[in-house]
Structure formats: C-alpha cells, structure tokens
Amino acid sequence: MTMNRYTLLGRSGLRVSPISLGTMTFGTEWGWGAEEQTAQRLFDLYVDAGGNFIDTADGYTEGTSERWVGKFVAQRGLRDRLVIATKYTYNAEPGNPNAGGNHRKNLLRALDGSLKRLATDYIDLYYLHTWDRMTPVDEVMRAMDDAVRAGKIRYVGLSDTPAWFAGRAQTLAEWRGFEPVAAMQLEYSLIERHAEHEFADLAAQLGMGLVPWSPLGMGVLSGKYRPSRDGAPSHVSGSGRLASLASAPPPGFDKLTERNFRIVAELEQVANDVNRPMAQVALNWLYQKRGVSSIIVGATKPEQLQQTLGSLDFMLAPEQIARLDAVSAPARPFPYYMFADGHQARIHGHVEVASKPAAYDRPVVVPAPEANAANATTR
Ligand SMILES: NC(=O)c1ccc[n+]([C@@H]2O[C@H](COP(=O)([O-])OP(=O)(O)OC[C@H]3O[C@@H](n4cnc5c(N)ncnc54)[C@H](OP(=O)(O)O)[C@@H]3O)[C@@H](O)[C@H]2O)c1
Fold first, then answer.
1. Lower Cβ count inside 10 Å, N or C end of the chain?
2. From ligand 1's centre to the CA of 215, what distance in Å?
3. Is residue 369, in this structure, part of any structural domain at all?
4. Does residue 60 have an active-site annotation?
5. InterPro entries this protein is in (predicted)?
C-alpha cells in the first residue's frame, strides 16, 4: 500500500506523490466532511503510506481545512517533507467584490490568510481556484510571479480555467520570464472526461501536470450507489455525500444519472476481472491517462483512503482500459470531431502520418529509496 515513487509535477522539478490527499472533507461545516479526529487519522494514514502532496483551499469548510492541515503538519514536524497546495479566488466577505476574484488585490489578501491558517511562511503550490471571467491573464501571472519572488509561494498552478486562458498564461510566462504554470487542476474521472478535448494536449505541449479532482465522481465510482427502480436520483440506495445532496444537488453534484450507472456497471465487470475494488480500478484507469501527474483523492473514512491508496499497486491491461474508454467516451462536439482519426484521414490522403512525440508527455517517475519509503527524500 506504500506509495513508493514520486512524479515530477508538469515540467517543473518538484517531486509529488502520484496520489494527492484532498482535504475538502476536513471539517463538517459543509455537511458531508469529517470530524477533527477522523481528519487527523486520514492525514496520518496518507503520510505514513509515503504520500507528500496535500491539497486544500482558502475557502474549504470555511477555513477549517487549512487550519487542520497546518496543525497536523506542525504536530508531526513535516513541513519540509510535504508539498502543500492551496488556492485563492472565492469571496471571503460578502458585499466586498475585491475580497474575491483572480486579481492582484485579492490574491495578496487570500495568500496572507492561507499562510496564517496553515501556520507556514510559504506555500509550495499556489493555484488560481476558478476563472473569474474578467481579470486579465497578465495581471494574474505577474502577481503570481511577484509572490514567488517574495518567497511566499514556490510554484504556480491553475484550476478550473478554459484551456485558452491556461495557454495564454504559459506563453506569457515563457516570454516574460514569469514563473511558469506547473499544474492544471480539473475535474477528471471515468464519468467526466471533457478535459480530454483540450487539456491532455495542453499538458503535453506546455508542460503542465494535470491534477484531476473528484476522480471517483464524488463516490459514484466506488460502486456504493445503486440506481433506483424508478431512476430517480433521490431514490438511489447507498449513503454518502451524493445521497445526502440527491434531492437538490448543487451544480456539479448531479452525478447519480443513468449514464453514470452504465459506466459503473462496466467498471464493476472490469473490477471483477482483475479482482480489485472498483475505486482502485477507476483511479488506475485515470492515472494512465496522458499528462496526469497526480490524482487528488478525497475520503471521509480511513478505510476509504486505505483502499484508494492501493490504486497504483497494479496496472490495468490495455484491453481493460479500452473497455472503460468505450463505455465512458465523451461526446465530441465541434470542432473536436474534426480531429478524430476518420476525419483526419481525409487531410492526410488516407496515408498514416506519425506526428513527432510531444516535447512533454508522461511525467518522469523518480523511484524512492526502497527502505523506509515513508521517510524517503528524493535528492
Ligand atoms: N479545484 C477544484 O475546483 C476542486 C473541486 C473539488 C475538489 N477538489 C479537490 O479534490 C479533492 C477530492 O475531491 P472529491 O472529494 O470530490 O474526490 P472523490 O475522490 O471523487 O470523492 C471522494 C468521496 O468519495 C467517497 N469515497 C472515497 N473513497 C471511497 C471508497 N473507497 N469507497 C466508498 N466511498 C468512497 C467519500 O465520500 P462519502 O463518504 O461522503 O461518500 C469521499 O469523500 C478535494 O478534497 C479537493 O482537495 C478541487
């Protein structure tokens, strides 16, 4: 179960575990998280298994997530060994438009708040959390670069932005000498594959590591939910975050659908074939996708995390991946259907033309020392 290897985050030299610990469930403020004692057990389980990559955000559970992460890290004296990622964007003071958004004033306000809650003097990876649809890209990248030069952050990340925004950010960084974007965080799983249209190529061409969130579709891909006879999401069986929100799911939480249960059915068959839990198979499938550096898993119970941390102890065969690819294939709207093989054959005169490999494709794997991987460093 020990995660005995690290990957490089995008084109940076930062070593991160292939599985990252999501801490959005640290705290009960949102109604579906864990109490402090359980959160601490999740944290201990993760770092004792060799994990070094922790994900939080300034707004998670009203600041509790960051506070507990800071406390747990300090208690075990792990600050230097861990890579702590947090995020800014969401408003912290209703009525004040400058207490939210992607702009410089909010970035600096939020960053100082995160440093205090995390009880640290630097953040390893600082993400813009979600595009605000108005702040210019150059303002974001310049403000991020200033924060790197001020020693408050080490690496820059983006989350939930359009691909054009990320492409422009990276190009500005390259041409103006700003700290480049090392990581791109997106929802990506067997039930949410739209990221593949743009972001796999973005990662490969521009050197950003993809860091998928909600890789189990918030629990659907563990197989614990079963469809109801009448198909109504609020009548499904199984308990957890999605069941508790099924009668009025907020945007993005409406995952108990007929389509998703079809994917779960095929996942169950593949899981039976390889004799592994469905959650492990879903994460293994995702880790083999192009450009993925590290997957952020969430948990409310230690036994869940125990299971997901074993997801990379085996490898699905190409035939099993193909079955999962087929059942979960995303629709190909315009212009993406034009990039499919059949359409491209008309461009290349029905001759097979191999393109050059991208400058950056899979992250490099850095093996940890065999002995005592939990305390491994990767010098
Ligand atoms: N950048 C962004 O916009 C963004 C958005 C969302 C999340 N994130 C990050 O991504 C992290 C992970 O997101 P997520 O929690 O939605 O991920 P997820 O891994 O898809 O779902 C985790 C949830 O699934 C259930 N679960 C996990 N393992 C299980 C198992 N083995 N068996 C049965 N149920 C299991 C648990 O919920 P229940 O016990 O309640 O069923 C758990 O909390 C977050 O903590 C956060 O750090 C980022």
1. C
2. 7
3. no
4. yes
5. AKR_Detox_Biosynth, NAD(P)_OxRdtase_dom_sf, NADP_OxRdtase_dom
